[in-house]
Amino acid sequence: MGDAGRSLRGRHVSADPGSKAGSLGDWLSLVKFSHSIFALPFALIALLLATGGRPPLRMLALVVVAAVAARTAAMAFNRWVDRDIDQRNPRTVSRELVTGKIGAPAALALALAASAIFLLASGMLNALCAALSPFVLIVLLGYSYTKRFTWACHLILGLALALAPLGAWFAATGSFVHLTTPLLLAGAVLTWVAGFDVIYACQDVDFDRSLGLRSIPARLGVRRALQVARLLHVVTVALLACFGVHTGLGVWWWVGYAAACSLLVYEHTIVSPQDLSRVNAAFFTVNGCLSIVLAVLTAIDLWVAPIAPV
What we know:
The chain is mainly alpha-helical. 72% of the residues lie in helices and 0% in strands.
């Protein structure tokens, strides 16, 4: 755990360690349920492509359950792991485990329950998903520790979310066939998520340095970190273009692509080293719109001009 671990040990943690249940709103806030719009739409894009735009209802339901459960497990576990850090950061002191609205044991129980649901849903999809699901959980839960020892934590978060379209593809195909399609999409998700997470982490650069936590902004400074984020999003744009060409998607996909590119440009115009006040808008609003627009227009494209399933 390095410097971060030494900084945190032996210091009083004010978060309530009890078993408070909390309200439904508290639980939804704890796991940032609304942020499911980041990875889930890309999982649906992969599923639609693999099934020719017409996934069986059971498969669709299981993919959605697996994706939401996986993200819930990851978020609840992250809040449990970071509760001692969160109570020291002025930006995060209102989080549920810090205020005591939800007890730490309850959050850990949610993470374990959601993990079990994810494993069950994966097993109900097919044998390949069942075999891969434990390794997915290792990445999802392991991410929570990465900022304690590597500045590449943003890329690992990107990898965690990039597993969503890969998993959906495997759910539909049950084998390692035609992997170029999901790998291009997963690569775009990885760099997209890593880029906006770098932007988000710029808010905590001084705090992270004070505790010895690793991040690209803490290592390089805000100005250079924003440059890294721009570079990552250039790669995102390139990979999405390759994805569109490779899959032969039609005009509606390219309308969505143009919208996504415009949103990424806008995201980088509303944040700067001198003004980070709109980071939350860049993080949630812009990126949420991007993923939804792409998914909806992909679905329309496949409805207008269906393709053969894999």
